[in-house]
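Give me structure tokens for this 303-residue protein.
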Amino acid sequence: MDSMRDRFARTVTELLDQDPRVALVLAEITRDRVEEAERRHPDRVINVGIREQLLVGAGAGLALTGMRPVVHTFAGFLVERPFEQVKLDFGHQGAGGVLVSAGGSYDWPAGGFTHMAPGDVALLDTLDGWTVHVPGHADEAEALLRHAVAAGDDKVYVRLSEQANRDGLGVDGTRMLTVREGRGGVVIAVGPMLDNVLAAVEGLDVTVLYATTVRPFDGEALRRAAGDGPDVVIVEPYLAGTSTAAANEALQSVPHRVLGLGVGRRELRRYGDMAEHLRAHGLDPASLRARITDFLPSRMPAA
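Here you go.
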């Protein structure tokens, strides 16, 4: 199966071929996977070197000339390090573009904390007007990237990860999907967390919603699934609690409880591998089941 990053490289190459407005701006990362695109479109594939502030600024500058820039590097170097440029060059100037990250929260633990970005979506939440896509499969990554590039001059963030679900679903860039229905609460699985969530809630009487577009937050889908007195668990592949405020706002007219599960704030200083980081943050199926059933004790499987 393709990785999301490999699919991104192929898809952005096709988009460069198809749309003369599209430009790709890189900071060395993934350059080896877009060599053909660089050969065919040397004027629209721009590698600025390891200069992440310039990466974002150049992307915004292209947008101001009428181009549709796709700006790409690891999440920590795309959102956190050049955050001032994201805030001012895109936000303050009213420029649109597509930021596409790789590396996620813990995809390459050997790279250390500099290559981890669990706070990226929470950081973008401090800004206005960003659409955020979190695909869980390479097919979804392609669909959401195409949706983002076609989205006029909007500001869009697409968060890619090495962690992926077994199957891709038919995502549309706006709404949550209902994967299964139950009567005893709602569990929202974000992007690559779906397979672990489904394994964790097997036999539990809960609804599972699948979110690959988390901003804007699909409050209507949550209200429909939750009913009049909901308990909601949100399982996200980044900082725990990132979307709890959005869920609380969606459910403000009814009594409810919300539990946010995700990456903890404590830095893990032993590199390990991705599976070990999932377990350490309580995001593996066994840990998720324990935490969900503790929050929803009446939703244990029937005898």
